[in-house]
Structure formats: C-alpha cells, structure tokens
Amino acid sequence: MNILDPVKSIMTTNLLTVTTGDKLTAVKEIFDNHRVHHIPVVRYKELVGIISKTDFLHFLRGFNRNAEDEFVNEARMRAYKVEDIMTKGIAKLAPEDRINVALEIFLENRFHAIPVVNAAGELEGLLTTFDIIKTLAQTPVSPEDILESRKH
Q1: Residue 129 banded pLDDT, cuts 50, 70, 90
Q2: Per-residue three-class SS string for the chain
Q3: pLDDT of 17-48, one tens digit each?
Q4: Would you state the pLDDT for residue 75?
Q5: What are phi and psi of 28, to 5 degrees?
Q6: CB–CB of 78/25 below 8 Å?
C-alpha cells in the first residue's frame, strides 16, 4: 500500500445506506444481517450523517435481558427514526484525498470510518480502519523488505 495513493483506491463502495426518515428497525436489520459497523445516512445521494453500531447499541442501552425488554426495544425502534440518533457533524474525505490524510484523521480522532464524498456532497464510498488493515495485509512483502526489517 502506498500512503500517497488516493483513498478511492481502497475505500468500500458497495454501501448499505439509510435515510433520515427510516425507522431504527431498518438499522437493526442491517447490523444483524451484514458485517458492517457503520451505516451512512443519505438524502438521495447526499451524505447527511452516519450511524455506528456503537451509537445504535448505546441507544438500546443493553436491553434484551428478557422477552419484555425485547418488546420494549422493538417499540422504541419503531418509534424512533434514523435522524434521532445519527451523527451529523462528521469528517469527510474527497475521493482524491491521499491515504496519509485519512491516517492522520484516524490518528487524531476516535472514530473508525470516514465517508468519502464528491464535490457535490454525494456519497461515493466509506473508508474504514478495516479497509486500511485489509489492504496492508494483502500488500506483498519483498525479500528486500524482510532483510531490511531484520537489520533493525
């Protein structure tokens, strides 16, 4: 991986999204049925927020201890909308921003996903710490790199 490459070279583009008016039952369904931890919130193609799995679990507050708690949670999820719990003020990247810029943002902040939007504010992808780790893990290591690492 070259950290000077654009983020569009490693970002996730096949995204599951929700809208501000969706019920939280839609969010639960995505988290339950897909291996994602962040769901972008869009109005048409424009990014307006994001919901992390942590935010969603915080909303639930550890319920589900028994059938009654589960019933209460279901009612709460039908009563609340995405806009009620989404994070609005979020960092964003442009597709052409370099990976090293994203690394600095991740290093300075305590979140694990940055939406990638074009100049019109339309969502094009999502860069996560997992995307970076996966790319690093798939980067071939040359014999010279191995010899160099043994010197240190």
Answers
A1: very high
A2: CCCCCEHHHCCECCCCCECCCCEHHHHHHHHHHCCCCEEEEEECCEEEEEEEHHHHHHHHCCCCCCHHHHHHHHHHHHHCEHHHHCECCCCCECCCCEHHHHHHHHHHCCCCEEEEECCCCEEEEEEEHHHHHHHHHHCCCCHHHHHHHHHC
A3: 999 999 999 999 999 999 999 999 999 999 99
A4: 80
A5: -60, -45
A6: yes
Query: What is the distance between the alpha carbons of residues 39 and 92, in angstroms, rounded to a whole number?
Result: 14
Domains of the chain: 7-151 (3.10.580.10)
pTM, 2 dp: 0.83
Q: Give long-range contacts, CB 8 A cutoff, 24+ apart: 114-118.
A: 114/90, 115/40, 115/47, 115/50, 115/90, 116/7, 116/8, 116/11, 116/92, 117/47, 117/92, 117/93, 118/94
- pLDDT tens digits, residue range 51-93? 999 989 888 875 556 656 677 777 888 889 999 999 998 999 9
- Given a contact cutoff of 8 angstroms between Cβ atoms, the answer to whether 126 and 7 are in contact is no
